[in-house]
User: Fold these one by one.
Assistant:
Number 1:
Amino acid sequence: MPLWTFKAYHLDGGTCPIQDWYAAQEPAVQAVFDATLTTLAATEDWEDRDTKEFKVLKREHEGLGEVRFQIEGKPKRRFRPVGIWPPSTEHEFILLLGCGKGIRGVYDPPNAFDLALRYKRDLEAGIGEAHEYR
């Protein structure tokens, strides 16, 4: 049984940014993302130094965490779906949106973390809902 569960943020109109992002990805990206979530679901402490699939964001993006995975090749492609931990539930992570990280550290979309913070605030204010991911 998984230690963690995942939810997805749905905007007030019902659109789900993480599911829209996922649907736009090629099957190889989807497969590695799915495998990464499976690994994280079975990992007790995501902040452990040995956990390479997750990073807590700091400074202006405090309160967010990024799921980290990559697709090997030339060039290597890195992805950083972003989410939050709801304060009232343990071992639950809400996926807000997906994004890529380019060669020079530029994110696609460039405002992904700022947008994720907005989604976080909206969800905390009761705008939109979190539903089971899948």
Number 2:
Amino acid sequence: MHGNLPAFRAVIADVERAEVEATWCLGDLVGYGAEPNECVALAEESCDLSLLGNHDMVALGRIDIATFSEHAAVAARWTQERLGSEAIEFLSKLGPEDTGREAIGLFHGSPRDPIWEYVLSTSQADMCMDAMSARIGAVGHSHVALFFRRSDGEQVRGAEAPQGTEADLSKGKWLLNPGGVGQPRDGDPRAAWLLLDLERCTASWRRVEYPVEEAAGAIEQAGLPRALSERLYRGR
């Protein structure tokens, strides 16, 4: 979500229309956007499970801001100064991974490094699958909707997953990334989410229109770097 409340609201509304049984958030509720407290409150209300992302961790003071890029550091400092006690309490209870489900492992970053690793290559995915006990894993962090698959005796294959991509997960080992809700970086500015059916073993990547200008305007009004608002229109 990265503090992008309009995008988060649009995704939650789309999720509710799909009549899912559970909603999972893979982390980074706060970060680049101007409404961090509202995003945390919506996650607490709407999500059955939330993970802790690196942007959440820096907002809590658990990661040194110096490890972040220039604009991310400015946004992190701004968020630290404005994060309310209720949001802090909620985020403080979260962790960066959930591996208690037999069918799927959930990670903010990756099975090898739940906080920091961006899984963007087949070689990385191969090593992450070796580190993952579940046959299917879902990761966030990279802001890119994609998937990796490894069948018995075959090399890992991967691809980006634009709107409408469907995958049969019944065979092989998989790593899935829903894409970014609040700040997509795959060239599609629409908010992204992933619909999983673990009984039928299927995955469907979804995109949702949201009022980008509202989120961008809130960033600019807050005095955050203009680059953070401009990139919302490009999905980069």
Number 3:
Amino acid sequence: MGTSKTAARRLDAAFLKRETLRLRREGATHGEIADTLEISRSRVHKIVTDALERLARDATEETRQLRALEAERLDALQHALWDAGIDGDLQAVDRLLRIMERRAKLLGLDAPSKHAATTPDGEAVANAVIVVPRECEDVSQWVAEFGPNALEVDSEPQD
């Protein structure tokens, strides 16, 4: 029993897609991939772009699901402590507030924070921009997560 022309084209398309993405992962340029696989650069671009968009959608959906799961966990913890907090248990109140802060960070409810850029000596750096993700409480937390070289200060003025 032979394969249909449609099935053969699907196999060829799947092979091109797999090979295009493999070559791109290995660092080949769109032009190099097009030459190697004997397809147009625009076809290479479309295959790579489609794959990246699919990954972004998958990551966004996974992130949404993880946020929902974490929010449910925070809800369960808050529910378990609520009566004690309402009855005046200060330790429970403290924990409830921490749960609420965590929820606000998780859901992006807090406004982003701004920080002035300084040198290690504490002097202000002109024209510097630091973006601190909402999840980080302060710059030191961000530096701790991303390393001591995360904030490099260029002391030379740029033209």
